[in-house]
Write a structure and sequence with these properties.
Strand content: 5-15%
Largest sheet: 5 strands, antiparallel
Radius of gyration: 32 Å
Number of helices: 26
Structural class: alpha+beta
Strand order of the largest sheet: 1-2-3-4-5
């Protein structure tokens, strides 16, 4: 993983207002000195999500999520620490160091920016051509025939490329953009026989898109990184669908059409609807089903699944029933299983794709089918049985082999066992036979097959449960005291000098997660001689611990007698050691012969410690 120096992170984060960033994702309203809104991390009707401009922190009193601006982005975008910093860095135009700690040459960043600017110019040019030129009338009529309205055309910056093959290049030339720059952006091609290294005049190249409706492809930041095109006349040159060639900023297998516009709706609904084409996506989006994305003509790749994972762990695929789509689903099943994505399938009636279905039957009917979607594994099993038939021996054997291939991609042991039981009934084959064949199938594919059942007995006791039991009341009291004391320290109510003076050290904290927080608190104190909440949150790697610290800082504290509260916490924490000492003395006394002269010494010490515990 890329390592980022703290100085670099401070440079990136400094100047950002957490309220401004979070407001892009959460609707916030003023509540005194703080702002409140509905928590984006759990379902709620009454706002418990709180943002403090003074502390530059957020905290949810409902689910306990909390932290700084980076923590929020990590949790909201489901991304790594480095990716969250990169998100902010891009906004500031700061170039981060690479894996070797070196800042990449500035020309690479400028090259990427130049490619996006060329794409944005091209998209705007094609949009104007659609909306304002005489040649765009046929494209407008086509979109009207597909019931794409003006608002959708505008929101997605749809465009039109004429058959000329030179118009875009001539436009770009006026903007001082060369043929090579257009090529680098994936928008132009060389004439046959011309090579990249040869001298290139503008007349030697041609527009990649000719006679097509243009669909700009956006990245997650809303920048146009590529174009897609669909021809509207059979006699037009090239395939029905065509995308920009791959560039420094665009990779087909790592991009999803419509994700930028749909991402908030995906998060709100809890799932994404996956379709195959631009028009399918636009029809759903325009009809109010806005949690959809399109795969740019490919079955979902690992890169696309990881991209989608930032917003949801559930996906609904809508298929038109062709065998190619089903085969693609089977190929991609192991990707979804490994990433833990719950996939369901909706099969449309023959002759319909999502676009035609929604135009004929409407969004309500499609939503009904989405609600009744079939789990992917179950769907594929049923397809294998229907396709092969099981009334004959040959058909049953073929179906069984296909089903074994499907089940071998299921990594969850309990889920796999459930399907084995179902398949055994459907095929009228004993479970043991299916399990045996499945085991061989998994070995062939070199995938480890998890154990069928977990041992219920003989497992080791969880860490922290072994050994002698302490008094529950003592544990409860010291856990509360540890939490209260760390809250006092983090809020600055008690100076660390006073804590050290009372001989409280990080190893005095025993309960989780206070032990981990205390370790970082004392480490920061030794290193810098101060405790600042933002530095502590940065130092903690665990998301839940960041939430605990935020919780300390958002607590409504009665600052009555801080000194008494502090001394009570210290006494309770120290009493735990006294309890342990008392138990040790008790065992020692019991182990001695009744006439052992040392017993009196032990009894005296036992009595003194017991008095100290009662006082504390």
């Amino acid at each position: 993983m890329k390592h980022l120096p703290k100085e670099t992170i401070d440079q990136v984060v400094q100047g950002f207002d957490i309220v401004e960033v979070i407001s892009e994702f959460v609707s916030l309203t003023k509540a005194g000195e703080r702002l409140k809104g509905l928590c984006p991390f759990h379902s709620e009707k009454t706002p418990s999500f709180t943002v403090s401009p003074q502390k530059q922190l957020f905290y949810c009193f409902g689910c306990g999520a909390g932290g700084d601006i980076i923590t929020f982005l990590m949790k909201f975008e489901n991304c790594s620490f480095v990716e969250a910093v990169e998100f902010l860095a891009q906004r500031k135009g700061i170039q981060l160091p690479d894996e070797n700690g070196m800042v990449p040459q500035d020309h690479k960043r400028k090259e990427k920016e130049a490619i996006m600017q060329v794409n944005e110019l091209a998209a705007r040019y094609y949009h104007d051509l659609l909306m304002k030129s005489a040649t765009g009338k046929s494209a407008q009529r086509y979109l009207e025939s597909r019931r794409v309205n003006h608002e959708t055309v505008t929101e997605f910056c749809l465009g039109w490329s004429s058959d000329s093959g030179k118009n875009l290049l001539h436009f770009l030339r006026k903007k001082n953009i060369s043929l090579k720059e257009a090529q680098d952006a994936g928008l132009a091609s060389l004439r046959q026989g011309q090579h990249q290294g040869q001298h290139q005049g503008q007349d030697e190249g041609y527009d990649r898109f000719r006679g097509r409706i243009i669909f700009p492809i956006y990245n997650q930041d809303g920048r146009i990184i590529a174009l897609g095109g669909r021809k509207i006349a059979d006699e037009s040159f090239g395939p029905k669908y065509l995308n920009s060639s791959e560039t420094l900023v665009y990779s087909k297998s790592n991009s999803l059409y419509g994700l930028y516009q749909a991402r908030q709706f995906i998060r709100t609904s809890g799932y994404a609807i996956v379709v195959e084409g631009y028009m399918d996506f636009l029809s759903l989006y325009q009809a109010g089903i806005k949690n959809a994305i399109a795969t740019l003509g490919t079955s979902l790749t690992l890169g696309q699944v990881k991209l989608l994972e930032r917003y949801t762990k559930k996906a609904v695929f809508i298929y038109d029933g062709d065998q190619a789509g089903i085969s693609a689903m089977l190929r991609g099943l192991d990707i979804f299983e490994k990433q833990g994505v719950d996939v369901r399938i909706v099969m449309l009636p023959g002759g319909h794709d999502p676009d035609s279905f929604i135009r004929q039957y409407g969004p309500l009917e499609l939503n009904k089918r989405i609600d009744q979607g079939t789990p992917a594994v179950e769907f594929l099993i049923n397809q294998a049985i229907q396709r092969n038939g099981i009334s004959t021996v040959e058909g049953k054997v073929r179906a069984t082999r296909e089903i074994l291939a499907i089940l071998s991609k299921v990594f969850d042991t309990l889920v796999r066992m459930e399907y084995v039981q179902q398949v055994a009934k459907l095929l009228d084959i004993r479970e043991e036979i299916i399990l045996d064949e499945l085991h061989h199938k998994v070995q062939e594919s070199r995938q480890p097959m998890p154990g069928i059942r977990q041992r219920a007995q003989g497992a080791p006791m969880p860490k922290g449960v072994q050994g002698k039991k302490e008094s529950v009341s003592v544990l409860d009291a010291t856990q509360v005291a540890e939490r209260m004391l760390l809250g006092l320290i983090c809020r600055g109510d008690v100076p660390m000098e006073d804590v050290i003076e009372k001989s409280i050290l990080d190893n005095d904290f025993q309960s989780e997660p206070m032990k981990q927080i205390a370790k970082e608190v004392f480490s920061l104190w030794r290193e810098r001689g101060r405790i600042r909440p933002e530095e502590l949150i940065f130092a903690l790697k665990d998301e839940k611990l960041k939430g605990v610290i935020s919780g300390f800082l958002f607590e409504e504290v009665d600052h009555g007698d801080i000194s008494k509260e502090f001394h009570d916490c210290v006494a309770k924490i120290k009493s735990r050691d006294l309890i342990k000492k008392l138990q040790y003395l008790h065992d020692e006394i019991k182990s001695k012969p009744h006439n052992d002269p040392q017993i009196n010494v032990l009894l005296k010490e036992y009595s003194e410690i017991k008095k100290k515990i009662m006082i504390s």
